[in-house]
Design goal:
Helix content is about 50%, strand content about 15%. It contains 5 helices and 3 strands, in the order αβααββαα. The protein has a 3-stranded antiparallel β-sheet. The longest helix has 11 residues. The radius of gyration is 16 Å and the shape is globular. About 15% of the residues are buried.
């Protein structure tokens, strides 16, 4: 079994957000960093190297997985039909 952490790059500059990592675009990645800066720093997911803000992959992956607790039981409408059909 492949760990999700191994799929995330070791680190990357916020300006060069990889398309393989949520939210998949540099402009959205910058928003995540602005909106959750304190939480990302506390999780060991964000650091500054010179003038660059750098995301540390392991810390970001851990922080991202902890965010799933906030949406427990959340289902979007397109998923409800598929789950109900599979349960029947």
């Amino acid at each position: 079994m492949v760990s999700k952490v191994s799929m995330v790059p070791h680190s990357w500059a916020v300006d060069e957000w990889p398309t393989t990592v949520y939210p998949h675009r540099p402009n959205r990645g910058k928003y995540i960093v602005r909106a959750f800066r304190t939480q990302l720093i506390a999780a060991g997911a964000l650091t500054r190297i010179g003038r660059d803000l750098v995301v540390l992959g392991t810390g970001y992956s851990s922080w991202l997985s902890k965010q799933s607790d906030k949406v427990e039981g959340f289902e979007i409408a397109p998923n409800r039909g598929a789950r109900e059909e599979n349960a029947a």
